[in-house]
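Quick one: N-acyl-D-aspartate/D-glutamate deacylase from Trujillonella endophytica, structure tokens please.
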Amino acid sequence: MYDTVIRGGTVVDGTGAAAYRADVAVQDGVIVEIGRVTSPARESIDADGALVTPGFIDLHTHYDGQFLWDDTIDPSFSHGVTTAIAGNCGVGFAPVVPEHRQQLIEVMEGVEDIPGLVLDEGLDWDWRSFPDYLDRIAARRYSMDVASHLTHAPLRVFVMGERALEHQAATAEDIRQMADLLRQAMDAGALGFSTGRLVEHISSSGAKIPGTFAEEVELIALAEALGESGRGVFQIVPKGAIGAVIAEADGRDERLAEHRLYERIATAAGRPVTYSITEVGSDPEDIWLMVAESEKAASAGLELRPQIATRGTGLISLLDGYHVFLMKPSYREIAHLPVRERIAAMREPARRRAILDEEHVEGEYADQPIVGPMLRRMQVRLPLTYVLSSPLDYEPGPDRTVGMLAAAAGTTPEEFIYDHYTATDDGGNFNVIFALNYANGNLDHVHGLLEKPVVLSSLADGGAHMKVMCDASQPTFQLAFWTRDRTRGPLLPLELAVHKLTGAGAALYGLDDRGTVEVGRRADLNVIDYDRLQLDWPRMVGDLPSGSSRMLQGSTGYLATLVAGTTTRRDDADTGARPGRLLRAGAGR
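--- reply ---
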């Protein structure tokens, strides 16, 4: 009598091998039989006509705070994720002393757009060291397994205090202390170490992020400390990763110098280095150079793994979020109303005319270093934003830009988007700026890069940018779009898309108990109605600490998700089961 048998599914096992039809039996949280299973089970899941895949591993999230107030871990939970790794980009909350808690909140608020008010209420700060922080997480249970890197910004501030906030160079003693704390973090179960070199990352107070300008001697010492554990990954946000202007005359030389630094880090650590890449309008060929260099490094025995998002990265504008009318006085008069009442007011001809005719008045947003520039960018780039067609198509052509749609309708871009927002009573209509990863107006580069074994699909940013993005829906998108729905270019093999979401990430982090459908592996599994798999429309939900809002995007088509053999989702709904726990590096099989 098995605990669970998934019967008659098409197994896509996460290794990249060809799919095959089989039953999958689970006992005590482990896969125990694959093939024609005749034994009875306490629970049977009919997977006839459905896919059976490993649970998805989300390599790049920012749930560092959400782990403390939420056991669901949405939006990732709605998209087949069974392992979520936080502590990316060098920002986090441990180690910490009380006098620097506020600075760490400001760092996370600025870099990852998680409101300070939410963090103020959601964090209990019942930790000092990074091992304390992991113990705090380990005391809770979740819908999935969770894990974290040690992050550079809080580590530097903990050791150097105000000198870190002033970006002073670390002394030899500073570096020794940071390396010791990194060793302790690895012993406690950190999955690795992360740092950020992106000068465009700033805190909500307008300050640069501690660690951005760390010298190579510091990074190499930390890499060596990481390597002493014999496990773990060194994660980096590159300098200029989202389009920062490179001061040097030759951008190619600067890029090569950046990659050479990663090679030296990988050599010092003897461990993988993974870094973010994205297509930018100023230099769309940059990513190909970096990937080519990582492929060359592999021949020298170094593992450098670029991570790329699988769709355009941008800002979603809708009435319950940020939009181009937010700074208009006549809109501010009604901004407090529930969305249905607000739309009714906006439909009044006099108010419509007033809002469209008025100048933008920044008011409360004028001095906000993050929101103010974002709203100005939305205003300037409005004609270049996209209105996505239904079902959601994340590879729109130029005919779906607000500028082109407005011209076809004989209106201005502002008039068009105003009427688009108010066309439905629930305020669900939106437009999106693909500021990154869509420089050429298509996703051809993503297709080419995902075909490369060295490249990982990632950067879903779950838990971050709560009011303007919901890229945590990328796992569902990756399967549905890249293997079935794309019309403007070639598709990817289903087996490759699943491998990028599962086995590839597990191998990178040495998680040898998960990531593939094999006997003896942990029963983290998805059963997917592939023909029905699709994304829901993004929506705002006011369920954060302090009542703040965030954007969620659900999905349709997940018949079941299992974590350690326990069904956490059934027919796209939460079962309430919380088998997930802290995943400590080295636990393995």
